Amino acid sequence: MYKNTLLTITFLLLFGALSAQDFSDGTWNFTYVTDAAGTDVKVRGTSDKGALIIPKTAHNALNGKTYNVTNIRNNFNSYCLPLPADGGADITSIQIPEGIKIIENQAFYPDFKYVTTFNLPSTMIGITGAYAFTYMSSLESIFCAMQNPFTIDVDEQFVTPNATDISKVTLHVPPGKTAAYKAAGWDGFKAYVEDVTAIEIVKSSEIQIVSQSSTSFFLTGVKSRVNVSVFDISGKNTANFYNVTTNQSLSSVSFQKGIYIVKIEDGSQVFSTKLAF
Asked: Residue 36 carries which DSSP code?
């Protein structure tokens, strides 16, 4: 059985050959760090290019253990791609998965000037330091899934020293949360949109949702029992199903016609998708 351990993201000032205590999953390189809380794993680089998708987990084939990602460390930009000489023209979006809690100072500074959109998952609790998202001169939209937004200084994280103009950026937040975000310092954006797109969509490669009729649906590809939650367009939790097995019929008879978010909890993993009834 795999032992889940906290995983944090960091980037070293210099890359070197992987030492005996480090490992790679073929795309990302990781290094162990042990403190009083136990063993964490820090990301030190990746060969991945294109849309930047931060990993949720890291698997070490040598010891058979899987580690969870919790932090994006400072200076992420300089040591993750490496970026091309044009400053990352091929990176236009950043996908940050559920499970990430902290983004540290200067994480995406200053080489992501062509990024137009990124998301902050519901598990985010803060951004430490400063300049985390400065120089994103092409930024258009931020999708925030936090129901209780953390306090932020937008000038410090986006504007200072220059280039990220938040007056041109639309902030997507969960339904009914605009006032809470503004009170926490998320102020000065071009527009505030309350919609379910702020809830991160993470699809499973195995589990699929099938609408059986106007009154029921079921899941395929479920290997063990899962829990299912359904949210309407306003973000209201409309239904919950527990210990669901594959092909089990789930009633949607009480649902009104519209778009819903269906979340599936499979052990430590959470998947979600949009579904029309």
From this structure: T
CA distances from 251 to 16, 32, 139, 212, 271 (A): 55, 46, 41, 10, 20
CA of residue 173 relative to chain centroid, distance: 14
Q: Are 51 and 91 in contact (CB under 8 A)?
A: yes
Give me the pLDDT at residue 82, please: 47
* Cα R_g (the chain), whole angstroms: 20
| 27: nearest Cα among 81, 64, 68, 69 | 81
217-257 pLDDT per residue, tens: 888 888 888 999 888 766 677 889 999 999 999 988 888 87
Q: For residues 161-182, give the mean pLDDT.
A: 86
127 pairs with which residues across the strands?
Answer: 103
pLDDT at residue 190, as a whole number: 93
For the chain, domains (ranges, CATH) are 5-198 (no CATH), 208-276 (2.60.40)
Q: Position of tokens 């409309």? A: 238
* 228 and 264 Cβ atoms separated by less than 8 Å: yes
